[in-house]
């Protein structure tokens, strides 16, 4: 047996023993996870800085703080979520009770990407623990400091047969996918998502796929431009644009393009200074390949702001690009960097085809004061989730399920939805033995008459 096969077998044995199922065990493990994060807080900041030059403020808001909130919320509500849910029973089933039991899947695999390497490995783990599963985490090989830290923290805190980290690239990932897993939670690119689903289908393993795509940001002519510019600047350039729900491109009503660009320039300078890469606090691009890909976009339009890049430190300053063609490479790929193309429209209807062209975006942002137009965008465009008059903030409300649709993913999580993602809802009918209604049996004399009445 390979090491990975042994690991999965050991987790299977652990799960079957039933230890992970009890409320007390789950709560204790969530508390251990929380203590682990607190204990390692300074090293978390350090490793994210080394991997991505993330500022401490960004680590606090988008990684560390997010996880703390998720754990607190889960601890508070777990008992209530675990209870079997009693549901109505129809008259045809008189005497019986109907219940939905919350059943953990068993051995789960969490595969995570590099852009929020701590957040995206640990947030699903909270759901896995809460729901009573064991878990194997495969973090990204592109953020070695944070992935190594995740391994160290998890190894110190949990038994290997309960939660463990397997480091490596796609070969390791593929070996894990060959195992008799019970559930797979994948966050990453659309292309790899397809591979994961294909692999999972061979064993009919259920999956959640949290993928990406091109998320449009539409600014209509009646939008409050100062707020729009500020919120777009923040959402686009946090983590240097390496955010799955970052506004990928701007679709601006023709009449307000120039004033919006002027506001954006002001907001970028207020938030990040005139030369963010000199400030030492602006995230860097994860590797040379992504850096080169992003720089190649810079001549696909007219740079109206920014454009400075530094290959040694893998940094690109916030950049606004005008006169971009829909057929350019930049408008085909998910940008995933601090470059914001600006396209214009005249009528809202005309944007529909363009957005549909890039298939179901993970997020959509619509800035307008007009409620009718807001509702039009919400109802007529397919997207995973989004905001009206803001960017990214929907992700921070754990009452809202987070996930994609179609090409941007399958399934959802955050808050209670994370518990649900890692839970099988097992339907059980508890029948009475005090009596036995005969009308359902084929030899019943009155059966047909009663059933016809009941089915009406
Ligand atoms: P990726 O798909 O390249 O890699 C994700 C994970 O899959 C990594 O752990 C990697 O080792 C593994 N992997 C890569 N190739 C594989 C293969 N052939 N078989 C099995 N496993 C493989 O994604 P990435 O570059 O790390 O992350 C960026 C992408 O993730 C973007 O598309 C972004 O939109 C998306 N993303 C989505 C969310 C979300 O919540 N929906 C969050 C963050 C990132």
Automatic annotation (TrEMBL):
GO terms for biological process: aldehyde metabolic process. GO terms for cellular component: cytoplasm. InterPro entries: Ald_DH/histidinol_DH, Ald_DH_C, Ald_DH_CS_CYS, Ald_DH_CS_GLU, Ald_DH_N, Aldehyde_DH_dom, Aldehyde_DH_NAD(P). The keyword Transmembrane does not apply. The keyword Flavoprotein does not apply. PROSITE patterns: ALDEHYDE_DEHYDR_CYS (PS00070), ALDEHYDE_DEHYDR_GLU (PS00687). Keywords: NAD, Oxidoreductase. GO terms for molecular function: aldehyde dehydrogenase (NAD+) activity. It holds the Pfam family Aldedh. CDD domains: ALDH_YwdH-P39616. Signal peptide: none annotated. The active site is at residues 210, 244. Residues 3-428 form the Aldehyde dehydrogenase domain. Belongs to the aldehyde dehydrogenase family. This is Aldehyde dehydrogenase.
């Amino acid at each position: 047996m390979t090491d990975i096969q042994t690991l999965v077998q050991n987790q299977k044995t652990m799960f079957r023993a039933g230890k992970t199922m009890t409320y007390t065990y789950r709560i204790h493990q969530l508390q251990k996870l929380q203590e682990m994060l607190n204990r390692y807080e300074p090293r978390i900041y350090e490793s994210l800085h080394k991997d991505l030059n993330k500022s401490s403020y960004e680590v606090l808001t988008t990684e560390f703080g997010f996880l703390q909130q998720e754990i607190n919320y889960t601890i508070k509500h777990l008992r209530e979520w675990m209870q079997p849910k009693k549901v109505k029973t129809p008259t045809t089933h008189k005497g019986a009770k109907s219940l939905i039991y919350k059943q953990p899947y068993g051995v789960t695999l969490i595969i995570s990407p590099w852009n929020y390497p701590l957040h995206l490995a640990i947030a699903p783990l909270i759901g896995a623990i809460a729901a009573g599963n064991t878990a194997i985490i495969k973090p990204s090989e592109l953020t070695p400091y944070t992935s190594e830290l995740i391994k160290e923290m998890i190894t110190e805190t949990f038994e290997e047969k309960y939660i463990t980290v397997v480091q490596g690239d796609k070969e390791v990932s593929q070996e894990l996918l060959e195992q008799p897993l019970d559930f797979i939670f994948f966050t990453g690119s659309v292309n790899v998502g397809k591979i994961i689903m294909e692999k999972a289908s061979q064993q009919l393993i259920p999956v959640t796929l949290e993928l990406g795509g091109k998320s449009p940001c539409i600014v209509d002519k009646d939008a409050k431009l100062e707020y729009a510019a500020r919120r777009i600047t923040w959402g686009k350039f946090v983590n240097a644009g390496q955010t799955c729900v970052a506004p990928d491109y701007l679709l601006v009503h023709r009449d307000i393009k120039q004033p919006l660009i002027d506001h954006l320039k002001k907001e970028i300078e207020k938030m990040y200074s005139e030369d963010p890469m000199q400030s030492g606090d602006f995230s860097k691009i994860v590797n040379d390949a992504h850096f080169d890909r992003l720089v190649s976009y810079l001549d696909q339009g007219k740079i109206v702001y920014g454009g400075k890049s530094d290959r040694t430190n893998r940094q690109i300053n916030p950049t606004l690009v005008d006169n971009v063609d829909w057929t350019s490479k930049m408008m085909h790929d998910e940008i995933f960097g601090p470059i914001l193309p600006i396209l214009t429209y005249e009528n809202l209807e005309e944007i529909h085809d363009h957005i549909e062209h890039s298939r179901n975006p993970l997020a959509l942002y619509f800035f307008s004061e007009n409620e009718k137009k807001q509702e039009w965008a919400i109802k007529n465009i397919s997207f995973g989730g989004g905001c009206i008059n803001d960017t990214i903030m929907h992700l921070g409300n754990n009452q809202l399920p987070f996930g994609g649709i179609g090409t941007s993913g399958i399934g959802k999580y955050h808050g209670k939805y994370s518990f649900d993602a890692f839970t099988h809802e097992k339907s059980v009918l508890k029948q009475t033995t005090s009596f036995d209604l005969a009308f359902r049996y084929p030899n019943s004399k009155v059966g047909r008459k009663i059933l016809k009445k009941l089915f009406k």
